Amino acid sequence: MTTAFPTLESPRLLLREIGSDDAPALLAIHGDAEHMKWFGTDPISTLAQARALVETFAGWRRQPNPGTRWGLVRRDAPEAGLIGSCGLFAWNRGWRKCTLGYELARAACGQGLMHEALQAVLAWGHETMQLHRIEAQVHERNRASLALLQRLGFEHEGRLREVAWWGGQPHDLLMLARLAGARLAGPPAAA
Fold first, then answer.
1. Which end of the chain is less congested by CB atoms within 10 angstroms, N or C?
2. What confidence score (pLDDT) does residue 186 get?
């Protein structure tokens, strides 16, 4: 990957590097336990944990199998701050694949913003990282996320039994994947 952070744009969003100033917004998003119940981690509750999350996302770019996490801000109101994030991580260059992750603040849901952001990220991943396969692991009760991925051309491939642990218990996740050249299933719905 390049050393300069790859800022992306979509019609309504700027996808940019996440910085320390974004910690309060990350705390608000990742601290919303009900909204983030299917994200795959326990909710955070302190600004120190949010700052650690900023460092985790930044650290992805320094790993042997690097990743990139973009902060999402509205182009028409960048001063309003971060409304979510999305990223590609666990890049296996030899296999030309990686994993997709994302989350959106509750107030930003239902407007098609994540669909828009992920279109830009998926295109960048296929073109710049030369990815052939992008995977996503989603809890079966996360209907909105499953519908979003289907609209983006992801296909269900199976169940990973007790592959994740949060909330004091193991969770099965569904494996979905999108191959290069996948077609979108339809227009973006509210997600």
1. N
2. 54
